[in-house]
Design goal:
- With about 350 residues, the protein is of the alpha/beta class.
- Helices cover about 45% and strands about 15% of the residues.
- It has helices at about 5-10, 30-40, 50-60, 65-70, 70-75, 80-95, 120-135, 155-165, 185-195, 210-220, 245-255, 265-270, 280-285, 305-315, 320-330, 335-359, and strands at about 15-20, 100-105, 140-150, 170-175, 200-205, 225, 235, 245, 260, 290.
- Strands 1-2-3-4-5-6-9-10 form an eight-stranded parallel sheet, with helices on both faces.
- α8 runs parallel beside α9.
- It is globular.
- About 50% of the residues are buried.
Length: about 350
């Protein structure tokens, strides 16, 4: 192929998204509307473009802890049933408009109960929103219920993930600052999920290093790693350009453990220094099970198409690379095997074949 795909062409590609936070993808105008409707008065500005710029600027701190503070405002306006339905519906619509055919969107139910909603009411409101937003748009959205790693409600959230797994909840996650809050604090929840044959991913190897990844895999049994960027610390590129993998990196690659990488977000939190130097380039060349994701579309001022566009520019990726990343993601989704296969063979491969033929 002589020309790399343009952003508009990439938007037409059938894409799969595994790591996207519901409270990190609100439309600025929706935040302003909901703040007015719910009486939330903490916004830095009520100008749409000004608020959009504020989120982007506040997120470029290089610190995960400061980055997480931007969620005070999004979570602050997501405390009623109507607001949760609206945010979830718009999330599905925005992803579909970006060409996403399957998405797993995560959120922490415990963060949306300050005005009296029960955890069950929160979950049911979000599921209703995803149903409304997905209808007739060629997208399917699965939900990941997240427990906050600095709290002590992981077992409760894990039980809800199992309870609602037949109505759209496809898995479980833990999130929040890694340092000082190892995943082993929630070992009882992970052991419960394994007994129930349930799927889960763990934020690991983003702001903390190899011990976090090792614990997530070997102690907790994670199906996937949220980010996993620091696995690069266990890989040495030698003078002749060849790479030598340490024991943990080799295990992750050999076991095909999916890495949910979010390039722009990783720059903002200091987990990578630039797109061109992001570990995704080396990991792709070494055939790790790498996937491309958005993390928080509002904070990173991004979309899945935007992430692919940046990688295309940095690494010269073409349609075949994009298809490889996309199939990786679909293989790694928390859907039954036959449903994953149907999307790969019936949607993803034909969609990329059309784009390559048109190019």
């Amino acid at each position: 192929m002589s020309q790399p795909p343009t952003l508009e062409e990439i938007r037409r590609a059938p894409k799969v998204l595994l790591h996207d936070h519901l409270d990190g993808g609100l439309r600025p105008e929706t935040i302003i509307d909901l703040a007015r409707e719910t009486g939330y008065d903490g916004l830095p500005t009520t100008d749409v473009e000004g608020l959009r710029a504020w989120f982007s600027e506040a997120s470029n701190s290089g610190s995960l802890e400061l980055y997480l503070q931007t969620f005070d405002h999004t979570v602050g306006v997501m405390q009623t049933r109507d607001s949760l339905v609206r945010v979830a519906a718009e999330c599905a619509q925005d992803l579909a408009d970006d060409g996403v055919v399957y998405a797993e969107v995560r959120y922490a139910p415990e963060q949306h109960t300050s005005t009296g909603l029960s955890l069950e009411e929160v979950i049911e409101a979000v599921q209703e929103g995803f149903r409304i937003g997905s209808e007739g748009r060629g997208i399917r959205v699965g939900t990941l219920l997240t427990a906050m790693r600095h709290q002590a409600r992981s077992m409760e959230i894990a039980e809800l993930a199992v309870r609602y797994r037949d109505v759209g909840v496809v898995g479980f996650d833990i999130a929040g600052a890694e340092a000082g809050y190892p995943p082993t604090r929630h070992l009882d929840a992970f052991e419960y999920l394994q007994r129930e044959n349930a799927h889960f991913t763990i934020h690991a190897g983003e702001a903390f290093g190899l011990p976090s990844i090792w614990q997530a895999i070997q102690w907790c049994g994670a199906d996937r790693l949220g980010h996993g960027v620091r696995i690069i610390d266990d890989i040495t590129v030698q003078g002749d350009g060849t790479a030598k993998l340490g024991r943990l990196a080799a295990y992750v690659r050999d076991k095909r453990i999916p890495l949910e990488m979010c390039p722009t977000s990783n720059l903002q939190t200091g987990a990578a220094t630039s797109i061109a130097e992001h570990p995704i380039g080396l990991l792709r060349s070494l055939n790790f099970r790498v996937t491309v994701n958005t993390d928080n579309r509002l904070m990173s001022a991004t979309s899945l198409s935007g992430e692919f566009s940046k990688l295309t520019e940095a690494f010269g990726y073409g349609w075949d690379d994009m298809q490889w990343f996309t199939i990786n993601a679909m293989k790694s989704a928390f859907l039954p095997f036959d449903e994953r296969l149907a999307l790969i063979n019936g949607v993803i491969k034909p969609g990329f074949a059309r784009l390559k033929w048109q190019a």
